[in-house]
């Protein structure tokens, strides 16, 4: 009985309102990402290499997406993490 209860609790916790993707896996840009469709034409020339660039936007389904990029030595951006907030707020 305790094992079944633990399994149910684990399933409920896995269905939380946000998801973190990344940290070791290769992320692909999605529509709204800075690097979707390739690297941006303008380079971040004043920011030091290794700087973190946060970015947030709404995806096609209205979910808020938070992404983190790191500036590479060639001044390109590497997508390192993505968090999607699935909560729906009605204002």
From TrEMBL:
UniProt protein name: Transmembrane protein
Check the UniProt entry and state the signal peptide residues, or none: 1-22
- Whether Signal counts among this entry's keywords is yes
Source organism's superkingdom? Answer: Bacteria
- Keyword Signal included in the entry's annotation: yes
Sorted alphabetically, the keyword list is: Signal
């Amino acid at each position: 009985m305790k094992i079944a209860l633990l399994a149910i609790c684990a399933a409920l916790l896995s269905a939380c309102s946000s998801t973190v993707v990344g940290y070791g896996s290769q992320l692909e840009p999605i529509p709204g990402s800075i690097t979707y469709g390739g690297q941006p034409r303008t380079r971040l020339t004043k920011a030091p290499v290794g700087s973190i660039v946060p970015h947030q936007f709404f995806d096609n389904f209205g979910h808020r997406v938070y992404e983190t990029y790191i500036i590479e030595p060639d001044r390109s951006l590497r997508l390192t993490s993505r968090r999607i907030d699935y909560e729906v707020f009605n204002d």
